[in-house]
Write a structure and sequence with these properties.
By secondary structure, the chain is α/β, with parallel strands linked by helices. It has eleven helices and eight strands. It has one domain: Rossmann fold (3-Layer(aba) Sandwich). A hairpin with a 2-residue loop joins strand 3 and strand 4. The protein binds cytidine-5'-diphosphate (CDP).
Length: about 230
Amino acid sequence: MANNSTLSTIPVIAIDGPSASGKGTVAQLVAEKLNFHYFDSGALYRIVAFEAYKNNIEWNDAEMLGELAKNLKIQFSRNEIYLDGERITEAVRSEEMSSGASQVATHPQVRNALLDLQCSFRKAPGLVVDGRDMGSVIFKDAVLKIFLTASVEIRAERRYKQLINKGLNANYAQILADLQSRDERDSWRSAAPLIQTADALLLETSKCSIEEAVKLVLNAYEISNKKP
Ligand code: CDP
């Protein structure tokens, strides 16, 4: 793997924010526009939760989870995720794994085990990443840091519509309660909590569309490029 000084010349746009804020969609579209690589860091915590579940490891067993996270054989290919050669793209996106991911993500043992893997996604010509600690911990030298959020009610409404459009059952009150408990866990944990750092730009999307959010990020990137 390239060393840090080589890597730091490769631009990173870090988009952090709470669940269902739309950061993944915005990050992917920004990456497409700029022809940059895209990496969804939340997928790693979902994979840890999924593999732990399969192996009967409790989501609160920090030591075992840390060992498991060190030895994952993950492959990302286009928009698909493979673990030990098995396609698990949809399996890791279930509501159960969303909750599991936010539980396994509280353990420093798990977060430390995933550090190098996350840094390895930094490749030319550039990288757009989304998560909770992309700008605050993993890519502190990102050229642009965005904190993308929306009110929890709006986020619950968006997730509700998403599920209904997919023909799935959805209960707004349940979704709202799940989001609230994940927000709380992500924001109040001691390891890499979700925070807006002083150098991150706040992007409140309660009243703005995905297209507008993408435009704002691209403008901010252009401006950051012009800075001496
Ligand atoms: O898609 P959504 O925002 O609901 O979740 P995600 O980005 O796939 O992340 C799943 C869980 O992983 C979150 O609830 C966080 O607890 C955790 N996570 C994290 O701790 N750090 C990251 N950089 C990304 C996700």
